[in-house]
Each structure stands twice: as C-alpha cells, then as structure tokens.
Design goal:
single chain, TIM Barrel, globular, 9 helices
C-alpha cells in the first residue's frame, strides 16, 4: 500500500514512485511465499493531490502498465497471481486511480500477461456500475478473486441492502467459479456473529457445514 500515513494507497500507477513500488512488491512476495498465499493485490494508488485526474491519466496508465509487466515477470517466478481491484471513487476513495471493471479490463488487455487477473469486489462494482449479472458474465474470464459486501452499508450479505447474494452465489456457481469469495465487509457485531449468514445460507441450500452443492447431489 505504500506509506499509509503519508496518504498513499498503493503505488503501482503513481509516477515517480517506481522504485518504492518494486521494493514493496518484493516484500509482499516474501510474505506471500512465507504464508503460502498465491495471490497478491497490486494496488494502483491515488491520483496525486492537487492534480487533475484527466491531466495525469495518461502518465498514470503508462506507469501502471510498466509496473504491472514488472510484477508479472516477478510473480511468474513464484507461480503467483497479481490482482487488480477497482475501488469506487463515489463513496470509498474519490482519489483512487482504478475505479471500474471496464478500466481494469482495458489495462489487463494492454499489459497482456496471463498471471494478472481482476479482483472484483462486488461492493465497488455495484456502486460504480451496477448491472452485476452482466458484469460477472462479461469479465468472468479475467476474474482471479471475488469479494463481497452488502451495499450501501458494507455489512454482512444478509443485512438490508441492494444486493441479492443467494442469486449472485448461484450465478457464480453456474459460471464455474471455483475460487474463494472474500468477505470484505465490516461485521455489525463480532467476527463469529458476522458469519452467521453463511450457516443460514448453507441450510437454505440443504447443505451441512462446508459441504458443496455437488457433494449434496
């Protein structure tokens, strides 16, 4: 993430910070290797304060592509995947550079490396674009990780909000998604209480704890 105290939130697309980005990436790879994590979120970073987004967009994209190609080469030696996550600039962070799945997909196409994927947080995707079913189907070949939270409160999937998660989970299954779904939300209570929705979801599908649909059939 760079220097959080200095207001940074990633460095991959920030011009002039390439050396710091590479140093941070090497540290991230070290940690990921140690804990056996095969995926690393490569954070794009914020548009520099005092600059116009449109005025620096081209330079930031060039920097991002350069750093992502470096990342892909490094991660290929570790059999790891780099992930790009669009973060909404309407609620969460108005200065973040990478905001939509469309923007991320265009960057990935320009970089052209198979070990770089899309980290699709449905919270951010819903806020920026909606149309989740279409977006999941359209970008599915690029997706390397899914994250969830209810909109707009960013709480548990069964909390009041805009998203129908049982439908979304079934859609992911029908698309053949086999990866993890990260719970990127703020629990209303403690962590264990915040996972109660999952047991209820399993029970609604006629499943036992940790059982899969295929096994149940």
């Amino acid at each position: 993430p760079g220097d959080l105290e200095a207001g940074e939130l990633g460095l991959a697309a920030v011009p002039g910070r390439q050396a710091a980005f590479r140093q941070g990436l090497e540290a991230a790879v070290h940690y990921a290797r140690t804990v056996g994590c095969p995926r690393i979120h490569v954070m794009a970073g914020r548009v520099p304060l005092g600059t116009d987004r449109a005025a620096v967009a081209g330079e930031m994209e060039t920097t991002f592509i350069e750093n992502l190609r470096y990342t892909a080469d490094l991660l290929s030696q570790e059999d790891m995947i780099g992930l790009l996550e669009p973060i909404n600039n309407r609620i969460t962070d108005p200065h973040y550079y990478l905001n939509t799945p469309h923007q991320a997909a265009a960057i990935l196409e320009k970089v052209g490396r198979p070990n770089l994927k899309l980290q699709l947080d449905l919270f951010h995707c819903q806020i920026m674009d909606g149309n989740l079913s279409h977006n999941l189907e359209t970008y599915f070949p690029l997706i390397g990780h899914i994250q969830i939270a209810q909109v707009p409160g960013r709480h548990e999937p069964d909390s009041p909000g805009e998203l129908n998660f049982p439908y979304i989970f079934e859609l992911l299954e029908s698309l053949g998604y086999t990866g993890y779904v990260g719970c990127k939300y703020t629990p209303k209570g403690d962590t264990l209480e915040g996972l109660g929705w999952l047991r209820s979801y399993w029970e609604s599908r006629g499943l036992q704890h940790g059982e899969t649909s295929k096994a149940a059939k």
